[in-house]
Amino acid sequence: MSFQNSQALTDRLAASSKARSETLARFRARPPADDPAVLARDSARRAIIDARETRAAAREAERLVEVARAAAAAEAARLAEAERVEAERLAAEERAIARQAEMKAQRDARYLARKAKAQRRG
């Protein structure tokens, strides 16, 4: 604060004392903690805080449900992929068995043809 040179020490002390007493008067003018208005304001604040916490808990629950749903979907996709791979493996085995059976049938047919040809000559 800037004071003019003509202001005396007593004037400054009086102004300081007056400011202190005004601050104290404002503090004393505040309603007591058990005043109905203060209690109503505090309960309204508490209700707002409770509602906020309830909404946050609901959001967290929704997030956890979504995480669980995503995990279940990923597990289902993994199982479906495993089943598809197993089905492809079984189909490949069946094709290999069928191919071996076909090759054996062709080999047997060639053998029988040679044997028949040899019997016709002999």
Keywords:
122 residues, mainly alpha, 88% helix
- Multimeric status of the protein: single chain
Task: Name the shape in a single word.
Answer: rod-shaped
Specify the helix fraction band.
Answer: over 70%
Can you count the beta strands?
0
In what range is the share of β-strand residues? under 5%
Uncertain regions: pLDDT < 50 for 5+ in a row?
A: none
Count structural domains.
Answer: 1
Count of helices? 2
Distance between the termini: 137 Å
Major beta sheet, specifics?
A: none
What is the alpha-carbon Rg in Å? 48 Å
Mean pLDDT: 92
The secondary-structure element order is HH
- Going by helix content, strand content and strand pairing, the class is mainly alpha
Entry summary:
The protein is mainly α and 122 residues long. It has helices spanning 9-29, 36-121.
Describe the structure.
The protein is an all-alpha fold and 122 residues long. It has one domain (32-121). The protein is 88% helix and 0% strand. It is built from two helices and no strands. It has helices spanning 9-29, 36-121. The chain starts with 8 loop residues before the first helix and ends with a helix.
